[in-house]
């Protein structure tokens, strides 16, 4: 008996040490919408109000028991933490919206588990089972609002008397939601819906989508919210919070909520959670080559959050990998997050429960590139449930009986994407450089899809991530690797690309041909190879960033060369032949076939045999094509 007790104590101590010193920078998060993941207990699907079913607007049956049943599935994917939508008691049906609160963001009691999901004992069991598998647990919380229980119509107050199961929150003081009886209590901002999201006052005080906005300037509300959410730290032993709608509450509230007396960090520390994670949702964007979104995110770090969802990066990566925008836009975004923010504490993701899934309108290869991207940069990658099973529908169920499931369960550990994510997880865990490395952008395309290359360096490791986001082959030349001539880059991960080593050419430059929508990840090795430098000279009569506004003849000289090809915008398959005569060459460029803007020009020059070749330097030109006004017509109002 003593040996058994000692063993249990050692296990408990090891678990406590493991999670007390958690390095969140090392984690991979799997995001679960409770109702749509796994139905472990069908008896709690329907509470007798007709609030459940198999359509997207109602509870479908997923619960905490279901998550417990599938923890090994999550662990097998390579995830080290789960993030679950709010498990708290919700408004089950809102007749004003004709929609249900299955998602968890319409609270009626912040300190109770919703009856459709289980109870507090089951929640404790979920956390315990997760911890035994080395999985951390993050709970989604909503300090900004409750459900939709009242509204103002033309200035007249109205209660949602047909709301199911109650017409008001059940937890005090949030239950004081009748304006006519409690106007002076100021538990809520007694306001209409936001009509102008650019209005700072409205954003902080008005209702979002009809959800009753809490008065977070009221000390009684602040105290109640602290008590409500620290309850889960003490009672369920969770490891972090994802904080919903952070941008709709004032910064002073977050400072007090997190760092104030009896706040999140004080209670977490008291419960041996010294590395308790808090990351907020601030759905902000930055336009290309602008950093306004990162500035906003930085304000939340200043207010006390120790991590943030990286929405500017998410929006940019979707535009590049899914929509085919310029890869230079993504390069700038990486540089900004590295210089302005703690990039290792930014949670990266390709989609979530509030947006269209990446695969809806995006191809499988593009999805794989986007996943490879978030797994090979500093930050905490988040995989939204179902991505690993190729989901197209945002809130489809993983279990057969639910919404858009196709009548089958989706827990296939042999599926193509499950194995792809698992392999990326292994890569990220094996090489700390992806989690902590300093990034340098080496190549990008400012004109559209194409080459995107960056280097990460950490503790002596130098890793190169090279992608081609275009739908045709592209040539990568003149990429300054920073390595010695002849040094070999060995592959450690590839997708749609040859898993071969590449010897760095003269001046440390790398040349390689990239397949359509491919990924090559390589590491600088200690090996070296021989490089051959043909005796070829080639000149081009172009100035860097030269402006061209009409058909233009490019000229130059060559020696030791038999022929050449001109390559526009790295499109190697569209290269055109150039004849060299008596050491001179010329090419008449018809710019009418090109869009205005920045374009790159590269030459491949052949020696006496086709095996002997070199690439020229890159040349950047600006096509300033004049516009001719053909007509001007007024558009009637």
What does this structure look like?
This protein is 25% helix and 25% strand. The model is unreliable at 1-18 (pLDDT under 50). The chain folds into 3 domains: 29-340 and 354-368, TIM Barrel; 438-528, Immunoglobulin-like (Sandwich); 537-623, Immunoglobulin-like (Sandwich). The protein is built from 16 helices and 31 strands. The longest helix is centred in the N-terminal third of the chain and has 19 residues, at 2-20. It is α/β, with parallel strands linked by helices.
The CATH superfamily of the largest domain is identified as Glycosidases
CATH fold name of the largest domain, please? TIM Barrel
CATH class type of the largest domain: Alpha Beta
User: What would you report as the Rg, rounded to the nearest angstrom?
Assistant: 29 Å
Low-confidence stretches: 1-18
Separation of termini?
87 Å
Decide which structural class fits the backbone.
alpha/beta
Q: Please give the count of helices.
A: 16
Number of domains as seen in the coordinates: 3
Please give the order of strands in the largest beta sheet: 1-2-7-10-11-12-13-14
Mean pLDDT: 94
* Main sheet record: 8 strands, parallel, barrel
Looking at the structure, what is the overall shape?
elongated
CATH architecture classification name of the largest domain: Alpha-Beta Barrel
β-sheet strand percentage: 15-25%
Would you report the number of β strands? 31
